[in-house]
Amino acid sequence: MKAPFAFLLMAMCALGVAARADLALAERWPVGEEVCADAPLRLTFDQTPVRGAAGKIELCQAADGKVVAAVDLGDDKTADRFGSGGEPLRYEPVQITGKMATVRLPAGKLGYGESYVVRISAGAFKDAEGHDFAGVSEGWQFRTKPAPPANPGRLIVAADGSGDFCTVQGAVDQIQPGRRQPAFIFIRQGRYEELVRIGSERTQIRFLGEERDGTVIASANNEKLNTGWVQRSVLGVEGDGFALENLTVQNTTPYKGSQAEAVCVHAERCALRNARFLSFQDTLNLSGRVYVANSLIEGDVDYVWGYGTACFERCELRSMHDGYYVQARNPADKSGYVFIDCKFTAAPDVKKTWLARIETTRFPASHVAFIGCKMGAHILPAGWQVTGPASAALRFEEYQSADLAGAPLDISRRDAVGKQLTAAQAAAESDAGKALAGNDGWNPKSLSDSGVRMAIIGDSTVCEYPSQKPERGWGHYIQDYFKDDVQVMNLAASGRSTKTFIAEGRWQKTLNLKPKFILIQFGHNDSHDPSHPEATDAATTYKEFLRRYVDESRAIGATPVCVTPMCRRTFEAGKLQDALLRYADAMKEVAAEKKVGLVDLHSASKTYFEKLGETASLETANKAGDQTHFNEKGAKAMAELIMKELPAAAPELKDEIR
Q1: What's the pTM value of the predicted model, to 2 decimals?
Q2: Averaged over 355-365, what is the pLDDT?
Q3: Selecting from 3.40.462.10, 3.40.50.300, 1.10.340.30, 2.60.40.1220, what CATH number does the domain 24-144 have?
Q4: What is the H or E stretch that residue 298 is in?
Q5: pLDDT over 70 at 432, yes or no
Q6: Distance (Å, whole) CA 5 – CA 42
Q7: Nearest one of 347, 309, 313, 348 to 328, comparing CA atoms
């Protein structure tokens, strides 16, 4: 039988017919130790997979094989609870992007300090031709972190497992209900395929994304899947005092897929800043007191709507199809939606868009105002669409509208239902603090919404690492030294120098986060051979880049602090060598020239390693032979050295240290 088969293969090759390669698993995650207790499963295949119509994905206790969580691919109505309250929501448990399949397990099934194995039945995935994936029956095992984060008021979400949680909802659920102090959640760059719910029992939660366009919370959800305002949104907020900044929320429901909010806010004293909100119908539902600034909102039909009071400043609203911008359903005793210095744009094929519409029989007191806004030619000359009888309580208002180039707009054909405001009236309505003050005097621009932000920039000796890896950077431990109102954002990146951190846009992203303090440590990669693209010269270009960091920090009102590069653990004949002295001295010179606070980690670490000696210093390394990078012990030691000098370098921080 072998000879005919070999002949057949030869014939297939001669005819250009390729033999089929079975769908194979190239990579699986998570594996190893220190896994987040909310980690999804990620399967990377050797080709694009297709979800099977049947089969199970199971998570089992490693000790006894007991199934603790399962996804049934034959169930087209999978539902689970998101957050601590409300009814279960239908969702898609398997998301496929390219060659990767991400599986969201039912919430709350993983414990801390537990070992698990993953089993996947044959046929759970298929290749493009419909052939079954063989499945996983053994060999996939991991263990979760031993305990939850020590400080639930300062949490980090990272899709790669380098934070406290892998999902945004996992971090939200960790925050104690009824907490009175703000809780900060820093969300690292990545795509988070999930629904997020913040119930009324969790107040003063703050989301801060690492990068506006690169930190994305996305999912498909709509009225056909889950009925109700909050239920059908991607991010549903019912907790007062919520703030979101520097990220994207996207509802991936396709065009004409029914009502599909990206965000629904049904809460008081909430702020959305420097963000993107993407969907089609009903993108933003704001049914509380909400301040929105410097954000992009995309949609087509009533894509800013709700029953609340909201002020929009310096936002862009982009219509993706013909339709309507706003539908305000506010009651008669409250203001509706006011847009100040906003732009109203559209996709290329959009020709007919109304500024706002309302049915006066249902909502006779609708209030919408456009003050100093720029508007594209796609907006219909009449502007306003009203159905129903005339209403004396209706307020559709406008002041000094312009075209997108800034020229005064011809408003002669506006519907008579609209009103042109006077300068005094426009000034009164442009005061967001007054409009949103309510009975509690809330100021939406209060700095207390953001706390004290501290950014850390640098290289591999500073940055965060996935928990499964042995490496640790000192930036990982700085947060532990500060009180709850300080939010540390470790933006350091492995392999970067003063030059490449700027060239890759990382520095601009740091500035966009508007930190109050910035700790700056570079030198290790700057010192590489001049032929390397990251290399700089200690006497010239290294100093030039440092000056730029200092000047641009101060330009946004931040206090820069220079941290000299720690000394490498290189011993020769029992004596510690000092290859980075030129860069440490150069940073000291810039700090003195610019009158900048300085932490001399180079000198402190040199003294520390000399005291330890060559043999004992090996215990701080992440692996044998590595003279630069740290394990947990080494990184914690560097953090302690920094914190001994930081109060003198930045006296304003003294009262913020525990």
Answers
A1: 0.87
A2: 98
A3: 2.60.40.1220
A4: strand 296-299
A5: yes
A6: 37
A7: 309
* CATH number, span 451-656: 3.40.50.1110
Between strands 276-278 and 248-251, the pairing is parallel
**Beta bridge partners of residue 283, listed in sequence order:** none
User: Which element (helix H / strand E) includes 197?
Assistant: strand 196-198
- Distance set, CA 338 to CA 50, 197, 453, 515, 531 (Å): 46, 27, 30, 29, 56
C-alpha torsion angle, residues 650, 651, 653, 655 (rounded to 10): 170
Q: What is the per-residue pLDDT for 21?
A: 63
Burial class (CB in 10 A: 0-12, 13-18, 19+), 636: middle
Q: Kindly report the backbone phi and psi dihedral angles of residue 311, in degrees, each rounded to the nearest multiple of 5, phi listed first.
A: -120, 130
656 dihedral zone (left: phi>0; alpha: psi -120 to 50; beta): alpha
Token pair 């928990």 is found at: 467
DSSP single-letter state for residue 307 = S
Domain boundaries defined on the chain: 24-144, 151-263, 300-437, 451-656
Q: What is the spatial distance between Cα 72 and Cα 190, in angstroms, rounded to a whole number?
A: 27
- Residue 392, phi then psi, degrees to nearest 5: -70, -20
Question: What is the tens place of the pLDDT at every residue in 189-229?
Answer: 999 999 999 999 999 999 999 999 999 999 999 999 999 98
Predicted pLDDT of residue 446: 66
pLDDT band at 651 (very low <50, low <70, confident <90, very high): very high
Task: Dig out the tokens for 537 from the structure.
Answer: 């010269």
pLDDT surpasses 80 at 18: no
Hey, is 428 helix, strand or coil?
Answer: helix
**d(C-alpha 98, C-alpha 188), whole Å:** 22
- What is the pLDDT, as a whole number, of residue 483? 87
Name residues whose C-beta falls within 8 Å of residue 43's C-beta, 6 or more positions apart in sequence: 25, 27, 28, 49, 100, 101, 103, 120, 125
**What is the identity of the amino acid at 109?**
K
Q: What is the CATH T-level fold of the domain 151-263, as seen in this structure?
A: Pectate Lyase C-like (2.160.20)
State the pLDDT at residue 83: 85
- Per DSSP, the three-state class of 616 is helix
SS3 477: helix
The yes-or-no verdict on residue 601 having pLDDT over 60 is yes
Determine the longest span between alpha carbons in the chain, in angstroms.
Answer: 94
Q: Please state, rounded to an integer, the average pLDDT across all residues of the chain.
A: 93
What the block records as the tokens of 633 is 């012990």
In which residue are the tokens 């050797």 written? 46
Q: Which helix (H) or strand (E) holds 338?
A: strand 337-340
Q: pLDDT band for 237, please (50, 70, 90 cuts).
A: very high
Average pLDDT on 405-430 reads: 96
Q: What is the pLDDT of residue 450?
A: 55
The domain 300-437 is placed in CATH, from the list 1.25.40.10, 2.160.20.10, 3.40.640.10, 1.20.1740.10, at 2.160.20.10
